[in-house]
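Weekly structure sync, notes
Attendees: PL (lead), two postdocs, one rotation student
Agenda item 3: pending single-chain targets
PL asked that the sequence for the first pending target be pasted directly into the notes so everyone works from the same version. It is reproduced below exactly as submitted, 138 residues in total.
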Amino acid sequence: MQLKSISQIIALLGGLFWFNFSHATPASPTSIDKLFDVLQIKQNTQSMVKPQQLKMLGLDKEQFWTSVEPQLKQLYQQNLTEEEIQALNRFYATPEGQTLSQKMPYLSQQTYEVVIKNMMSNSTISNGLFKMLGVDSN
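Predicted structure, written out during the meeting:
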């Protein structure tokens, strides 16, 4: 078959592109559970929320996790394929992956604080909000 126009080439490439995505396997709950275990998502998520924040919400750490876990797993399932989750699981089994999995929660928390501080310093919101969020405003 000889392609005679750019539109035919684009249609062919588009079809190949769509074929690849339409056959991507959704991430399985088992693979997501394994990744959550390896990355200690539960522990890291619970540690991000300060006790006074949980108290304000009337929750303990387990209640908080129970409400957040399905939403986080849904995000992973919506955004990652089974192949990607398996690749992440393989990577995090390596020494480099294990080191990175230990460092990422701290980096994520520090990133969150930098973003919040930047937002707050560029707004009219008082430092009281910093204290409520448990972020040092200095």
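Discussion points:
- The chain has a mean pLDDT of 81.
- The chain has eight helices and no strands.
Action: rotation student to compare against the earlier draft before next sync.
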